[in-house]
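Box 3.1. Reading complex inputs
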Amino acid sequence: MEKQLFLGDEAIAQAAIDAGISGVYSYPGTPSTEITEYIQASPVAKENGVRSTWCCNEKTALEAALGMSYAGKRTISCMKHVGLNVAADAFMNIAMTGINGGLVIVTADDPSMHSSQNEQDSRFYGDFAMIPVLEPSNQQEAYDMVYDGFELSERLGYPVLLRITTRMAHSRSGVITRKPLSQNQLSTPEDGRQRFVLLPVNARRRFKVLIEKQDEFLKCSEESSYNQLILPLNPLKGTLLQHNAQSCSPNSLLGVVGKLGIIACGIAFNYLQENFIEGFQHPVLKISQYPVPKKQLQQLVDTCDEILVLEDGFPFVENQLKGCLGIGVKVHGRLDGSIPRDGELNPDIVSKALGKEVKTYYTIPEVVTGRPPALCQGCGHRDVYEALNEVIKEYENAKVFSDIGCYTLGALPPFRAIDTCVDMGASVTMARGAAEAGLFPSIAVIGDSTFTHSGMTGLLDCVNNNANVLIIISDNETTGMTGGQDSSATGRLESICLGIGVEPEHLRVIIPLKKNFEEMKTMIREEIEYKGVSVIIPRRECIQTYARKAKVK
Amino acid sequence: MKVNIILSGVGGQGILSIAAVIGKAALKDGLFMKQAEVHGMSQRGGDVQSNLRISDQPIASDLIAKGSADVIISLEPMEALRYLPYLKKDGWVVTNSKPFINIPNYPELDKIMDAINALPNKVMLDIEQIAKDLGASRSANIVMLGAASPYIGIDYSKLEDGIRSIFGRKGDEIVATNLKALAAGRAVAER
């Protein structure tokens, strides 16, 4: 097959199409968005009727994926790391029911928080749910892991979690694709009720089954070609990138010179390779499938006096190896300061951990200043914040609870307009709680897509309690921050708000343009003064999607 | 051969369009390639960079190590300086001279020019102006690619092929315009 240049995300998407998925269920989130976008744009997927429109949130997405799997078909569900928090209820319980058609769940972690509010490590979720986790070290592995992942999922009867990080998601490399497979036929599970009705009587049994399965999952890891114990066959001459390294029997480890062993998880393996272009000088355990392969780990530990653990994200393997007392083998990594506790890995951090010198020849001249991201010129959110800022100056103690999206950039100069941004939907609910504590005015600013993701239920709480809040749903008719994906809210916001019980006279819509500036200020002032739930919807299309559509025309 | 390229600029300037041509050319040349991009929040007018690595051997890391970039190609002068710790001792900086001012505290341009001029190996050019003079104002990024072309380890003719393959579906005229832009950039570097 021909080699194609794919982003990690695109490799995953192409693999899912080639493996015969019948649907992808996702909510946009950097750095996972391009997986679903690629499938949406694929003529082959379209021709094969692969269902691919965006879902309201990660939970509805994963549950729909489970439904498709229940009906016997292969499906993939993709989200960013914090999206798995939203889908966690479904995720944990899919490990109880198991699957029917193959199910691959992709979470894209964002160490260094390039576009996220934390750097949680999804491998803990895999461990928590007690299901296998795959973590590719390059784009080809990402492709192969997904292509084979559906078969693995079907063979084990459980979903598999594919964990990638930003660098894997958004880095391009050549990938060789494989033969497309046809889709599964419709078939519901014969033992469906025993598995999928998680009444305590069934759940207790299912949990025992899951516990019993752990040995099999471990065996899969130990036999996986993605996990490799690699020896420095000739520490001076080994050719690294072909790494002539078989998985070895314990005996062949004997006689290895050097006492440091290295564990490299996922993409960390590349940074390690970069430091040993001429070949590894230490025994190396590459881990790309979990649970942690105990057999190979034991072999490594038996041979080495000290272990350096390289992993992007949290010290997941390091913690397991070290244990809470840190007795036994000496372990280096993020916990003893060999590697910074936070932030993504790179070749330089790995170099330093290996005691190598990182040479630089030039420094950044002092004249260089920071260039933070900003709301686009002409963006409607700008008009909203300008009006809001002017009005709330009239109040002594106004607070603006905001949310996840482009409008979070209202936190930065020149606006400095928001006081909080925590998690999807938290603007509405925090505004309610603060109002009930006596804060006035208590204002929420949320985007349209975030509102239908997780704001609607919070609004119902507000209405049921007649909370004294102003909710501004700044509607740009798209999911802007992730690049302009369709928003579930488009065309539905007024009817949703009215249906939830917002009083029609306190549901107001305006076009955020300079010419409406004074009107918008008046509207905001009036609704702040109304003692109850008000919703203002400033609506103007995202300037980016607008420009893109104009270009197509 | 092995070349490490850092592309830099401001979100929205289109550094990835340059990477796309180089990538196409590298692949046509049967070379290995890795390219780390920035998507997401920084694309909203923040500083952005892409790490592009090309080699006739398989490439390990997606990211370039400090002190090992052969060339920094920047669409904005201040952004050319942000990644200097990654530059090799004898590496080149090829940058647009025209600043993109979208922050209130943009430094004095003279100071930025001084810092660039202090570097041993640099090419500085006004890509927008050159493109405009050619009647190809939408091809400024290709002018930049032309100016960087002596330093990226790929035959000039392969870059031309890359342009033909990327712009081919837009018609012969667009291809010709971009080839002209490439040549104009190259001419500046060779001056």
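In summary: Chain A has a mean pLDDT of 94.
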